[in-house]
Design goal:
Radius of gyration: 19 Å
Distance between the termini: 45 Å
Number of domains: 2
Order of helices and strands: HHHHH
């Protein structure tokens, strides 16, 4: 089930940043980020007001929570803002691949620093996947350029 949820989260991430990049292009980067997070705040407020739990939304005491854990929203603002800048300039597929590579590197670092775990096999597997996706995207971009040139 968690694998499916992770795949859905990846799909929603690409949809979210694509939609928000279009918004950011129309209203400006900062304004797009503000509208994005305001709409998210509105949705989660409604979910909480309706008492929808889904075993995901719980109020917890901040006691014992590391300080850095409260900055996820700030990181989200950075992600959304950067995507608003990047996505209008490069194809979504290429941006997704580059974000995947960033996630892969960051995931390896977090596993090492916070969980004291490192798997050379997983690292090499991730690099091979990233390289394979890169080759496919590079071919797609080259084909798209040929279509534009010959059209």
């Amino acid at each position: 089930m968690y694998i499916t949820l992770a795949i859905i989260a990846g799909i929603l991430t690409v949809i979210s940043v694509s939609i928000n990049a279009q918004l950011g292009e129309k209203v400006g980067v900062a304004q797009g980020v503000l509208i994005n997070f305001a709409s998210g705040f509105l949705l989660i407020s409604i979910v909480l007001a309706l008492g929808i739990s889904m075993n995901i939304v719980e109020f917890v005491s901040p006691k014992g929570v590391p300080v850095y854990a409260f900055f996820g929203g700030a990181v989200g603002v950075g992600v959304t803002g950067l995507c608003n800048i990047v996505l209008p300039k490069i194809p979504v597929l290429v941006a997704s691949i580059l974000m995947f590579v960033g996630q892969l590197v960051c995931g390896i670092i977090i596993d090492i620093v916070f969980y004291d775990t490192f798997s050379l096999g997983k690292c090499l597997g991730g690099i091979l996947i990233a390289f394979g996706i890169y080759l496919v995207a590079k071919k797609d971009v080259a084909e798209d350029k040929n279509k534009v040139i010959t059209s």
